[in-house]
Model the fold of this input.
Amino acid sequence: MATFVGIGCMSGSSLDGLDICCVEFTGDVCSDLWGYRILTAETVPYTTEWTDRLRDAAKLSGADLIKLHVDYGQFVGRTVSEFIEKNNLANVQFVSSHGHSVFHQPTDGFTFQLGDGQTTSTHFTIPYVCDFRTKDVCLGGQGAPLVPCGERFLFTNNEMCVNLGGIANIGIKGHSGYDVSTCNIVLNRLASQINGKFLFDKDGQLARSGEVVGEVLEKLNDLSYFRQPPPKSLWRDYIEKEVYPLLNREQYKIEDLLRTCTEHVALKVAEACIDAKELMPNNVSVPSVLFTGGGALNKFLIELINEKLEGKGFKVEKADEDTINFKEALIFAFLGLRCLLGEENVFREITGSSSDTISGSIHRPLPTRTAKPISLLNAR
Done:
């Protein structure tokens, strides 16, 4: 058995901050059996300036976008370095980051995540891995969702894993998965429109106070995305064009729109679980479902999902708080580890590409520093 210690970083579409998770992975490379232990983790909230810059990134000119790409690379490098120093993490062997998605248009053959890897790597004495989506998109895949690619190794006890992040996605036994619907990217935006001090709808209290707007719910449920078969992925550009125009706050109370969107997410997540159950082997009569991501802390959303799954033959498992909050960062640490070990980490069954790949760009430390590459990795 080998042990590796790494840090994973995740910046989601909900713009709540940079998730940083230090993880110890223990496994056997030959058998590909792995376990993990979260050592320490935190979310570093974005300042108002960073939130505005990231939200408006897609509107920038080419030169300004490149400048932001470098600036965000500096931000990630400084923030993770401070995290390492503050927590006295002298045994960390690598850092891995998802970056912050600005464009994700796999049908047009491109995806772009902010955070210049060369820039970020100058802050570390250990290898840095980023850019996990581009190769898969180049090979005809969606480049998303990538979390199920890690679930197949780290969450083998769950038939389904549902991440309720900016986008809700489902992983099915780590061998298929897709983006299900919008989630916190829309709910958080609506909450902030009620009061600028609301970063999100705590416990779903605002949504609970509203009423479902039937005509809006019908239009949300009938979006063209839901008629596409998996593999498929959802991103901000589609949401800006197709979802937000339906949420007219001049015509409807924001609490009612929140209630309607929460109902929509719950319905689509429940439908995805029910559809996935039909694909389960005959010996799995009661599949277990693990909910993680910020939406798993939204009590009203979880209530609605549970209501729609009740009596359908599911075992809903409650994750621990660190797993709920940092599962995506944990997974990207693991995808970075597999990249450094030269093992496949993105799988065509999930993304629809023509091939499994070893994805991720590896940036080595400055040559004057003493870090040893990990075969790139040396097991502890």
Q: What stands out?
A: The mean pLDDT is 94. The longest strand covers residues 33-45.
